[in-house]
Amino acid sequence: MDRGPRNLQSQADLFDHHADCAFFAASVAGVQGDSFGLSTVFLAIALVVGGIAALLTSKAAQIIVLTVAVLSLALGAVELITAGDLDNSRAMAAADFFVNEDGSKMIETDEDGVPRDIRAALLIADQACPEDAAG
Length: 135
Fold this sequence. Notes:
Elements: H1 5-55, H2 59-83, H3 86-97, H4 118-128
Helix pairs in contact: 1-2, 1-3, 3-4
């Protein structure tokens, strides 16, 4: 077993790569957690606003407040359904995680930080950390 500088450097590089991929996997989980948290907020708003509507005496006010509750419920349901999308979470995390040597982002994003090309973001993530691509 060779313990020369080259072998130790290659082991260090391998461990560094595994650590980066583990950190990327944690970033993906963080993006998914943020989505689940946002859906919880929308659903809680729907519950509170629906409770407020029950206390109102004016039918017009009840309808307006219940409309807000239904919209919040719908937004929460959509966010909850899309929160489990692993490809979307990987693309979002890749946009922040992978950078060039000069510090610029490898993946072009819009003003909200959403990757402009989801497939390109997934390709970069899959090439860098293929063991995480399967989920």
